[in-house]
Amino acid sequence: MTDKKASMSLPGGNFDYPVLEGTVGPEVIDIRKLYGQTGMFTYDPGFTSTASCESAITYIDGEKGILLHRGYPIDQLAENSTFMELSYLLLHGELPSKKELDQFSYTISRHTMVHEQLASFFRGFRRDAHPMAIMCGVVGALSSFYHDSTDITDPEQRMIASHRLIAKMPTIAAMAFKYSLGQPFMYPQNSLSFTGNCLRLCFGVPAEPSEVNPVIERAMRRIFILHADHEQNASTSTVRLAGSSGANPFACIAAGIACLWGPAHGGANEAALNMLREIGTTKRIPEYIARAKDKEDPFRLMGFGHRVYKNFDPRAKVMKATADEVLKELNISDPVLDVAKELEQIALHDDYFIEKKLYPNVDFYSGVILNAIGFPTDMFTALFAVARTVGWVAQWNEMIADPDQKIGRPRQLYVGATQRDYVPVDKRG
Ligand code: SDX
User: Fold this and answer.
1) Pairing of β 66-69 and β 28-29
2) What whole-number distance in Å separates Cα of residue 232 and Cα of residue 229?
3) In this structure, what DSSP letter does residue 238 have?
4) How far is the C-alpha of 219 from the C-alpha of 80, rounded, in Å?
5) From the CA of 66, how far away is ligand 1's center (Å)?
6) Who lines ligand 1 at CB under 6 A?
7) How far is the CA of 352 from the centre of ligand 1 (A)?
8) Are the C-beta atoms of residues 273 and 260 closer than 8 Å to each other?
9) pLDDT value of residue 131
10) How far is residue 378 CA from its own chain's centroid?
11) Closest residue (by CA) to atom 13 of ligand 1?
12) Strand stretches in 33-111, DSSP E
């Protein structure tokens, strides 16, 4: 707490508001009393200058391209950690001991199966349903199966629900994938790692034994680690807002999935690969760069730009290296990767992108890897949701446990009609 103040000279007089500082990053002006004292709101559509909460989970320095999870740099975690270890870190705040990690991994593995009746939910979807449409519906429906872990005032039930969500997301995402293929659902194999199990659920078939390629498992593990959490992004803020009303955690995560689906957010990985495929060859890059710069053209370079990063997204750097590694190890030459690299180079030397500080983000290269592994583009965001679930539940738990937590209820700048009287239809013009 500091004794710093922010002074505002407003029509109603001069007002001072406390300045709060965190352990690192921008200080905040505590304006919680502003409306009560002045009758005025602040105005910040898109929340570009608004801190919605206090959090200790993830820190991003957009200018420097830094991403820390509980203080640990993302590149170190991507290189050295596992998704289960990172999940423990995000949920509990510290890296686990070996005993703690083994216990946590065991607990998660014991929740990987879904209620057998859940499989019937899939039958109602068209075979060509987008996997994110299925994820929204099926994850929300989990709340109808788990009445024993929806009392959010009970920390133990909150943690059981969190474990269930982390563990079941790969199973449900894989079921959506299998359903689209007309293949039978696979059952989890708990002897495998979280990532290995997810790959086997997606690519294994009951008719034959399946081995998980260690190169692909390592790449997939990195992808899950890079997507686990990212401060107060749109889908995490959606989960927090849904949770602030006391909604059960399954419904909150379903809301997060819905928000992640958008092409401006998690849907960008699917859109980025589709864009790279549409560009097709490096010769057509200038045409698309020109379109991205054209104010009259709604086209944007998918996988480029970020609300917070005004430098390289540190995740994109790891993703680019992983794309090189996977394609080389799998002996795949994908022209889309050449287009991606050339597009990045041209954009990074173009004044428009330099001036607007637009760099590749986490979604720019991820699709190249997922495509090389064998996933169709419409599964990319579902896999993003599998990873981001641990971030969502960690942030949701932090919010529920916050003694200052209250229902989120923003106000507005009203620009509509002032009061007027009703006119019966036979008297209207
Ligand atoms: C994710 O928030 C998170 O942390 C998200 C995420 C996470 O892990 O949770 O990191 C995951 O969602 C990454 C972002 C994925 N989205 C895309 O790649 C879609 C393409 N990018 C853009 O739509 C855009 O960059 C956003 C949505 C990501 C950010 O938009 P902002 O912060 O609202 O910025 P803006 O739209 O105001 O853009 C600033 C300027 C604008 O030009 P001007 O109006 O100032 O003239 O930059 C331009 C934009 O037109 N611009 C782009 C561009 N992105 C921004 N121009 C061309 N191509 C782009 N990609």
Assistant:
1) unpaired
2) 9
3) H
4) 13
5) 18
6) 46, 230, 233, 264-266, 268, 292, 300-308, 356, 358, 361-363
7) 14
8) no
9) 97
10) 16
11) 265
12) 58-61, 66-69, 72-73
First to last CA, the chain: 61
Tokens matching residue 163 = 């474990």
Residues of the chain under the 50 pLDDT cut:
none
pTM confidence score: 0.95
- pLDDT for residue 26: 97
Side chain identity at residue 351, one-letter code: D
Q: Using the mean position of ligand 1's atoms as its centre, give its distance from the Cα of residue 48 in Å.
A: 12
- Residue 257 C-beta-side C-alpha neighbours within 13 Å: 29
Query: Measuring CA to CA, how many Å separate 394 from each of 63, 92, 93, 306, 372?
Result: 25, 8, 10, 23, 31
H helices of 261-374, in order, are 268-279, 285-293, 314-329, 335-348, 351-355, 363-373
Cα→Cα distances 112→105, 107, 179, 213, Å: 11, 9, 18, 21
Tell me how crowded residue 374 is: count the other CB atoms within 10 A of its CB: 12
Indicate the Cα dihedral angle 58, 60, 66, 72, nearest 10°.
-10
Closest approach atom of ligand 1 to CA 305: 25
Q: How far is the C-alpha of 68 from the C-alpha of 75, rounded, in Å?
A: 9
Residue nearest to atom 31 of ligand 1 (CA): 307
Residue 365's nearest CA partner among 276, 265, 257 is: 276
- Report the half-sphere exposure of 287 (CA within 13 A, side-chain side): 10
Q: Rounded to whole angstroms, how far apart are CA atoms 398 and 291?
A: 42
Residue 357 has φ and ψ, to the nearest 5°, of: 55, 50
- Take residue 172 and report the two structure tokens written for it: 């449900």
Counting from 1 in the atom list of ligand 1, the atom nearest the Cα of 265 is 12
Helix (H) or strand (E) holding 7: strand 5-10
Q: Which two tokens stand for residue 340?
A: 């991606």
Which protein residue's CA is at the shortest distance from atom 15 of ligand 1?
265
The protein residue whose alpha carbon is closest to atom 8 in ligand 1 is 230
Residue 211: partners with Cβ closer than 8 Å, 6 or more residues away:
none
- Specify the residue with its C-alpha closest to ligand 1, atom 20: 302
Bridge partners (DSSP) listed for residue 15 = 8
Is the dihedral angle over the CA atoms 206, 208, 209, 215 positive or is it negative?
negative
Q: How far is the CA of 270 from the centre of ligand 1 (A)?
A: 15
| 363 classed as catalytic | yes
